[in-house]
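Me: I'm a chemist; would you kindly supply a protein sequence with its C-alpha cells?

Assistant:
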Amino acid sequence: MHGCYALKTQHGSHLVEMKRRMNQQVASKGIQLVTISRPTAYGEYAPYTFIENEEEFEKLVEKMK
C-alpha cells in the first residue's frame, strides 16, 4: 500500500491511550503510527485513506504486514 490510513479524531487522553495501545500491537511489524494535525502539511504520507471509525481503523492497521 502506498500512502496511509487516517482517522479524524480529537486531541486528548483518549487519542494518547489509543495510540499507546495500537503501538504495542503493531510496533514489532515495523508499522509507524503518526499523529498529525494537518494532513496537507505532510505530503510524504499521502495519499490518505480516511477511515470512518476507530474500530475499523484499528482492524485495518492490525491486518497490515
Notes: The helical segments are 13-26, 54-63.
